[in-house]
Amino acid sequence: MANVTRLLEWIFAFYFLTHIPVTVLLDMQLLLGPLFYPPSLTEFRTWYVTKFKDPIMLEPPSWFTPFMFCEAFLQLPFFPVAAYAFWKGNCKWIRIPAIIYATHVITTLLPILAYILLNDFLSCKYPSPQTVQERVTLFAVYSPYLVIPCLILCVMLFSHQYHQVEKKKKN
Length: 171
What we know:
The protein is mostly helical. It is about 70% helix and about 0% strand.
């Protein structure tokens, strides 16, 4: 079981390491605007929106903006800390912060995924999912940001490696 946990820790470290450039170079364009980014990055975002039909990344719904602020100011500082802890492995001190992070991300991803699957995009002025296949493709793009936090939460809650055993006091 320890080998499985170690493999998952490496996956988590990779997830957090890759999440840093995604957040800084792509997601934060929604908060900072195109003036803070070179044209190549704004063009990449446009390509992504066109390719994956993700209108959230060009014109986010009002409820999405607080999620972006949380990602920028709460999650982003946590990413390198978590990447370090999981790369090193068996860092019990990451347990509670990782539970908080995972719970937060899961609760933010659920409405995003529901929006992708259930929203009526017919009047959207940007490329948006119109078919079931396009919705499933966009859902698949976002799904690692749900699946990995779910795995993090399970490991932090159920792995014996992350449970600190309290020492009983002798009378």
